[in-house]
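note to self — DONT lose this again. spent like an hour looking for the file last time. sequence + predicted structure for the chain T wanted, 478 res
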Amino acid sequence: MHADYLIRKDRDRSFDQYGRLGPFIFNYEATELFTQIDHADKSIILYGKVIDSRNAALTPREIAADLLAAENMTELLAYSRYLAGRYVILFRVKEELWVLPDATSSVPVYYTVTGHETVVASSQKRIADVLGFELSASAVKIKASAEEQQSLPYDSAMYDEMKAVIPNHYLNVNEQRAVRHFPSYKMQEKTVEEVALETIHLTQNVVDNYMAERELIIPLTAGKDSRLVLSFFRKYQDRIKLYTFNHHPESPEPDDIRIPKQLTEKLGLTYRVFPREQLEESDYKHYQTMFSGTQNKRILENALTLKKSEYRDQSFVTGDIIPLVKSNFGRKLPEKLATPSYLVTKTHNYSKENKARITEWLNEVKGSAHENQVSLYDLFFWEMRLGRWLPNNMANYDTMSDPVLIFNNRHLIESWSAIPRAKRVDTAIHEMIIAKQWPELLDISLTSGGGLANALTQQSYVYYLATFLKYGVHKFKK
């Protein structure tokens, strides 16, 4: 999905289309992703793929009309909490403008800080080109201390004059300021069964909406996330196609290929294995410039592989977001251990500046998270892993493929987080949902084993210590 846009007070001639929002102009290209409704002194723009997970039959224009009933941002947040897909919402009241990303900021929102012309865009490179900004020496240093797939910490951008809007924030465009809106209330605790049924109902609506307009392909591995995704497509099994990337064709067949082969053969599903394509060095350098140093070679090569495959014209469904259900970062660890030193190990970034930014984030959210009984581990995963890593991956994928997020739904993410972490860790939620929808998917084991090391790391405190050890080893190698 190519959802490029730029907001400023002037037309940008590099875009063919535009919409007016008071003193601001929304410049864009993809007319099929654009919906605008104006009434009196208010406007709504939806840009991207927007689905109401409660009623998949609603059109973007009908959704925009519902949102336009909001009188302020508090009401807009309430109206939008069940929306799914990949999108940004622009809300104008008189001369004031706000930008609300989707639940994971999967369509990026970068903005200039005060002291510079107000510009907002889906690409930090585009803003830099418009205003003549240079890459930040500090940002380059932080990025060089990280694994390539990891984005910058918190709301940092590759330019000192910009920031990114992360999940649980909206942008006050006039004030050039991101405003946190969550955690701001106590979530009602829910049972695992209740949330599982809600996940099935709302996500099936999203899947039905996508399948009504396009064909989808689904990556399949030996893990549970991809099988959970597949379980939502049982009634479409004659239409869906599955695949696995073979990252090492010269090596013995791994579980991630052997097990999907067994499963798809048993169920009579269409399945392919694609040897992973290699990106030419000249193309890699092009993307390095395009993404201001936040390119991800692995993702770009995945996208290239799809582009060159027989499935090149079809969108693919990712399993991203759903790992939050199991509280992968926190397990059963007490909240007091959610320290900067521990959280930094989850960033795969080894710079002092990275730790300083994570400490800043923790100091900002700790009070409201504890007050509203929101786990810091979950919030960190949502905002730092999903909110920075996921949008960057989506942007890299969008260059040559079309990723679909079926779980990108604020209501669901909050519902999962409302289950105490210990219950989520102890309950096989993935298997519960699969069993309710397509039990035959469980006839073949999810994985071929695990061993002693896997069993030990299932113990929270062993996992905690192992996390520091792993981080230290990688830091030494870096």
